[in-house]
Specification:
This protein has 350 residues and is of the alpha/beta class. The chain has 2 domains: 100 residues, Rossmann fold (3-Layer(aba) Sandwich), CATH 3.40.50; 195 residues, Rossmann fold. The chain has 13 helices and 11 strands. The strands form 2 sheets. The protein has a 6-stranded parallel sheet, with helices on both faces. Strands 1-2-4-3-5 form a 5-stranded mixed sheet, with helices on both faces. Helix 6 links the parallel strand 6 and strand 7. The radius of gyration is 19 Å and the shape is globular. The two termini are 31 Å apart.
Length: 350
């Protein structure tokens, strides 16, 4: 399994492979860049098909965290960790304590938090072995509402750029995935007067969405192809690919999922089709912003006000992309690199 020659290796500062035979822990911690500060990123617990897929996810997610933190002005660097396996089967307190010991060995270069497959309760077990943990109960709490707020204002910014009006009344949004973030986003959209089309692997959740939000439920394999103004991917990554993009009928893509583009070239394809794409690591930064506000006196109002600035960032990004004739995904990367270059005291060309 190649690391330095891996397609998604991007001058990562550290890639650590973690194994604890006693608990069954097999994990990867990837620290991408600490120019802006110590890295912060969630821990994803997932039954990857192989170690290579886990490495790819860790590399891509950690790089995305660097760029996300840069554009969100969090004063943190980018890192991510992944645990390989089924959390329902092997996610024991002992395993999370073992993970905490590996985080502690990083010496503060990486701060762990919850992500897909992990929870604040799991992070409490990690916390028994290291202080480098964020998003604990009693701190900033569940980051999902903050992430959902960021996506909500991001959708408004996309509508404003495309139509000149951010009013959501009568706007149809197709939401793929009704986890914590997807559900909270749908609640906000419903209250703002949007029409919802939803999908999720759990029938009971989509049934509840139809009852609470008056949503229309469709299959998980067809949600991307429904007639809607906005497609909001809020599940796992790779939802924008060679199969789904040709079937898209929405003119805006704006959701909370990480790594929505299966490959970077899919950003070019979206632009060529006239679809306005809100780059994932920009629009879904609410959670990391909320966690970055943790401290002796966490102020939720200040944290959420910071999250709301995601809309302004996206508005600037959309305008610059048009002016400089770049795709929005290219523009996001450029803007993040500009922040990193200024922090390092170098020109972007260097």
């Amino acid at each position: 399994m190649a690391v330095f020659n891996a397609p998604d290796f991007d001058n990562h500062e550290a890639v650590v492979f973690c194994n604890d035979a006693e608990t069954g822990l097999n994990a990867i911690i990837a620290v991408h860049d600490t120019t802006l500060g110590p890295s912060l990123g969630g821990c994803r617990f997932w039954p990857y098909e192989n170690d290579g897929d886990a490495l790819t996810d860790a590399l891509r997610l950690s790089r995305g965290m660097t760029y996300k933190a840069a554009l969100a002005d969090t004063g943190r660097g980018g890192g991510k960790s992944v645990i390989i396996g089924d959390p329902r089967r092997i996610g024991t307190p002992a395993l999370f304590r073992a993970m905490g010991r590996f985080v502690e060995r990083m010496g503060g270069a990486y701060t762990i938090a919850e992500d897909v497959g992990t929870s604040p309760a799991d992070m409490a077990h990690v916390h028994q072995e290291t202080k480098h943990v964020a998003g604990l109960e009693g701190g900033s709490g569940d980051p999902s509402p903050a992430t959902a707020l960021g996506v909500f204002v991001g959708i408004q910014a996309a509508l404003k750029h495309q139509r000149g009006d951010d009013d959501l009344k009568g706007v149809t949004v197709a939401a793929q995935g009704l986890g914590h973030v997807g559900w909270d986003l749908c609640n906000r959209l419903h209250q703002a007067g949007a029409r919802l089309i939803v999908s999720d692997m759990r029938d009971e959740i989509t049934s509840e969405a139809t009852r609470q939000f008056g949503a229309t439920a469709v299959g998980i394999d067809t949600i991307h192809a429904v007639r809607a103004d906005v497609f909001a991917p809020c599940a796992l990554g790779g939802s924008l690919n060679d199969r789904t993009i040709p079937a898209l009928k929405a003119s805006i893509v704006a959701g909370s999922a990480n790594n929505q583009l299966a490959e970077s070239r899919h950003g070019d394809i979206l632009a060529a089709r006239g679809v306005l794409y809100a780059p994932d690591y920009v629009i879904n930064a609410g959670g990391i912003i909320n966690i970055a506000h943790e401290g002796v006196a966490y102020d939720q109002a200040a944290a959420f006000a910071h999250v709301a600035r995601i809309g302004d960032t996206l508005g600037q990004l959309f305008k610059r992309a048009d002016t400089e004739r770049l795709t929005t995904s290219q523009m996001a990367d450029q803007m993040a690199r500009e922040v990193l270059a200024r922090a390092a005291g170098r020109s972007l060309a260097a």
